[in-house]
Amino acid sequence: MTFPTLADPHLTHKVALGEDGGGGAGHPSRPARRPTYRCQVSIAPPEPHALPRTLGELRASGHEQRTVKAELRHNLLQRMRAGLPRFEGIVGFDDTVLPEVERALLAGHDMVLLGERGQGKTRLIRSLVGLLDEWTPVIEGSELNEHPYEPLTPASRRRASELGDALPVGWLHRSLRYGEKLATPDTSVGDLVGDVDPVRVAQGRTLGDPETIHFGLVPRTNRGVFAVNELPDLAERIQVALLNVLEERDIQVRGYQLRLPLDLLLVASANPEDYTNRGRIITPLKDRFGAEIRTHYPLDLDVELDLVRQEADLCATVPTHVLEVVARFTRAVRESPAVDARSGVSARFAVAAAETVAASALRRAALLDEPEPVARVGDAESVVGTLRGKVEFESGQEGREIEVLSHLLRTAVAETFRAHLAGLDLSGFVALVADGESIETGELVSAAEVLQQVGSVAGLAKVLDRLGMGDAPTPGEAAAGIELVLEGLHLTRRLAKDTTDDGRTVYGG
Predict the structure, then answer these.
(1) What are the tens digits of pLDDT across the range 117-150?
(2) Element (H, E) at 102
(3) 123, 139, 206, 280: least buried by Cβ within 10 Å?
(4) How far apart are CA 496 and CA 491, in angstroms?
(5) Segments of the chain with pLDDT less than 50
(6) What is the pTM assigned to this prediction?
(7) How crowded is residue 289: how many other Cβ atoms within 10 Å of its Cβ?
(8) pLDDT at position 360, please?
(9) Ordered structural domains, the chain, with CATH
(10) Are the C-beta atoms of 480 and 486 separated by less than 8 Å?
């Protein structure tokens, strides 16, 4: 008899496909755009009824016990051979980080992931759970998820001896086989490993009785994956408690003669700056990790865009070229010499920026009673003020934060303008402001008002086509395309620009 594993195609996580372009409703006449992937994973679904319920039934089914690392290796190999995705929701690591993670899993190594903030280390660690079997047998009521073939605690061994093949078997879903601890200053050995439970002592048990132990997070994740986030922040004397877990695969609780052959994969995350300065991983603990893997920020623009599309929860339609401005802006901030490279610029910066741009569009639609909120390039200006606190600047830049970010945003808009509209004849837009005329846009100017000012300008259809808006863009999308042209012409010094006190942007000759 076989039991379902993650490698079974019909049991893999379901992923819902949403319309690209900021989460807005798709237009029936527009071609399909690149989908946004958003995982919708059911946690601990109902337990199948056909699974064995006693130790005797489990033996009769032919079930074979495997360690967690053997289980991960088996399911990973099956997925690799079948060409199936191995790590759901991970973007930009396909050719760099993931091959190293796969090699570590195949080798059966515990690992530590090193990387600056916001590089997806925790997301990657949590995705490892998806490589476990869908269901695994445990002794029913077991505190440490013990396998029916191998009881560990005195209570479970006693039950197994008394009941024999009638020992009740429960089934644990893979989503419940993951434990995680953020290394905070108040973390204790008792939190991780365990301590004496005074309540059990008060109930009459002696201090020498192993059943007086209250087990910590690590043994309670037996037969699963346990993660320690920001490991260098864990006090060095607390890190010592993990030495036996990584090497001898057991735990020590105070003065008890206790040996528990734990079966788990231990994974840790760390910031390289913390790794060497603020805190450190003690040398004996570093030596016990089988693999040390460096993560990184997205290496190219397309990956940055994919990451924003996947993670951002957008409350308005954000056209692709506006998302591209956000992605280019994030990359420019990350590479700027004015920004502290050791601190890094988190991927959460780009996600928050996209959500802020969408919120700005929604605010305009509410104030002007527009039917469809669509973000424009000008909405990105709101990001500078609201997100500057997410960036650590180099010393000497005090007071220049807004200036630096505003310059980098203008650079991102100019690059997006050139990338999409270079070579187009845009003289029709320049002619609109001849003879002292002007065009007004901004956060308090509706899409209808922008279109009314522009009219049937020559070259607009080609602009919208270059921006991927199809033959029948909505008024909001058309206004977004026009604003990119106007801002791009200003940044290339073909149009003047002024901003009024009431939130209007005036483009002139």
Answers:
(1) 889 999 999 999 999 999 999 999 998 999 999 9
(2) helix 97-107
(3) 206
(4) 9
(5) 1-42
(6) 0.82
(7) 19
(8) 95
(9) 9-294 (3.40.50.300), 301-508 (no CATH)
(10) no
